Task: inverse folding
DNA sequence: AGCCTTTGACCAGCG
DNA sequence: TCGCTGGTCAAAGGC
């Protein structure tokens, strides 16, 4: 029915964005002259601080800043460490694009009000996203302080939140449930199998072609939905190192998602394996992303979670670079600051 | 056996 | 018409 040409106008979910204060160019964060890469919290600090401001701003102020300014989008990091921006283009196609560090333009990290911060942090998905910190405390632990505040904020903003999230529930499902799939591939955890399974979006895909893209290092793979008579196709572009750089969808599914955990349904479901009971980071992260995508940023909790997501993003940046003792010390200081701010906030409550 | 990926060939659109 | 390019087909082989 909704063939691609005629196109299933999958409309992009309009989601509010949060804005952060003017920031120095991201590039400058990585070039302090020492050739050393900054840690996540260092980056957070630099990210939020004013250029002319030499004093450290409390974390609560950072949060306040994040809440105040519109139009800024936090980077979204995929499981393979590539930075993705998943969006829809004209004609009902949605796409995921790589990000430049200097332009953190990506899908928002949002958390549905019913998902408690602690639940989020305790989830394996979040664990996967935020691996153990190299200096002892996991970021999960360090951020527990912040999420405690998030829980408070959540309860305080529950009314506001529930009134604003209304449109997200069902109407956007068809589009948003696939929204973040580009990010779910984790080449590290599934080196051999997942290398050509671009995304676990709940549907089953069969690859029917691959072409090198002229003039660049990318190759493009073509997938069809394996469901009978389903017209949906997707194109997945990857760089030579296997990272997904873009996903393009065509058409709309004319069927429900296959049940992921159905055993022995006779489903020709290659991808179903990846949603097996022992859900890895991939599946859980996918669920998390789906939740994220389905709910607009509308509360302090959302903003706080945006910060958490930013830290995760910075985590990955850091993991890609050499971390020095000096930077780690800085991070510990920042962590302590977060902790203090958390306690302060609790007192204020 | 059935489904998958791979990959070269083929086809259509475009300049 | 020709060459280029993107998209698809289908045979072969693997799991």
Result:
């Amino acid at each position: 029915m909704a063939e691609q040409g005629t196109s299933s106008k999958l409309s992009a979910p309009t989601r509010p964005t949060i804005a952060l204060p003017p920031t120095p160019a991201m590039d400058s964060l990585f070039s302090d002259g020492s050739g050393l890469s900054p840690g996540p919290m260092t980056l957070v600090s630099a990210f939020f601080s004013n250029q002319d401001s030499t004093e450290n701003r409390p974390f609560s102020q950072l949060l306040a800043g994040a809440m105040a300014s519109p139009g800024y989008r936090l980077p979204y990091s995929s499981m393979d460490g590539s930075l993705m921006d998943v969006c829809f283009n004209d004609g009902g196609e949605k796409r995921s694009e790589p990000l430049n560090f200097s332009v953190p333009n990506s899908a928002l990290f949002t958390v549905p009000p019913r998902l408690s911060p602690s639940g989020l942090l305790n989830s394996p998905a979040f664990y996967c996203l935020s691996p153990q910190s190299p200096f002892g405390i996991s970021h999960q632990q360090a951020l527990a302080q912040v999420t405690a505040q998030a829980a408070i904020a959540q309860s305080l903003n529950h009314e506001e939140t529930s009134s604003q999230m209304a449109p997200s529930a069902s109407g956007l499902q068809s589009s948003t449930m696939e929204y973040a799939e580009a990010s779910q591939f984790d080449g590290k955890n599934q080196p051999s199998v997942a290398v050509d399974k671009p995304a676990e979006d709940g549907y089953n895909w069969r690859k029917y072609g691959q072409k090198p893209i002229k003039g660049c290092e990318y190759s493009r793979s073509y997938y069809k939905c394996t469901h009978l008579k389903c017209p949906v196709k997707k194109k997945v572009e990857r760089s030579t190192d296997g990272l997904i750089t873009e996903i393009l969808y065509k058409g709309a599914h004319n069927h429900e998602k296959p049940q992921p955990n159905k055993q022995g349904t006779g489903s020709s479901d290659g991808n179903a394996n990846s949603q097996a009971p022992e859900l890895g980071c991939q599946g859980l992260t996918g669920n998390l992303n789906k939740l994220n995508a389905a709910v607009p940023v509308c509360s302090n909790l959302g903003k706080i979670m945006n910060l958490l997501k930013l830290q995760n993003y910075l985590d990955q940046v850091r993991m890609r670079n050499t971390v020095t003792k000096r930077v780690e010390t800085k991070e510990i200081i920042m962590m302590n600051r977060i902790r203090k701010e958390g306690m302060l906030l609790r007192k204020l409550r």
